[in-house]
Amino acid sequence: MSSHLLHLVRKITLAAMLGFFVLGSLFAGGYAMEDPGGAAGLLMIAEWVVPTVVVALLAKRAPKVALPLLIVSTAAVVVTSLLEARDPMAWQKLWDQQGPILAISGFGVSIAWAVYGYYQKARLSGALMLATCGIPLFAGVLMGTQEGPLIGGSTSAGVLPGLIAGVVYLIIGDDRP
How far apart are CA 128 and CA 159, in angstroms? Predict the structure, then answer.
């Protein structure tokens, strides 16, 4: 493929992820405004939208600052996913009380990785998007606590686009026009 075509694919991937961020934010935000609603709902929305936007902006303008934040965030999502898969019932009470923290975390981190991959290193971004988004889906299989990937629900809805974008970034690589 020509470098111009690869750049176009990279641009389309970023645009799709940003569009997914807007739609996903509206969807999740709607639930937060329903329950608990009011100022508490707005605070819940801000708790993940603000960090996602800040890290995404850093990925574009200050990638050396963003990269460690993204790696630590990815590690947190991966470790939490594995711990949850090891003993899902122990985590269920937290998810019931606090909402889909893991799904929202993977969603937010994958958005920031998409920005990093567009402006910086697509392959690195793609590999870590696959970890951020793939481990939550396949953690139960990896830990031997379930037979198939976690399909359905907020986790898969939040991370499937990041999985697709991660694969695209791995394939297109880091070449620039």
Answer: 12
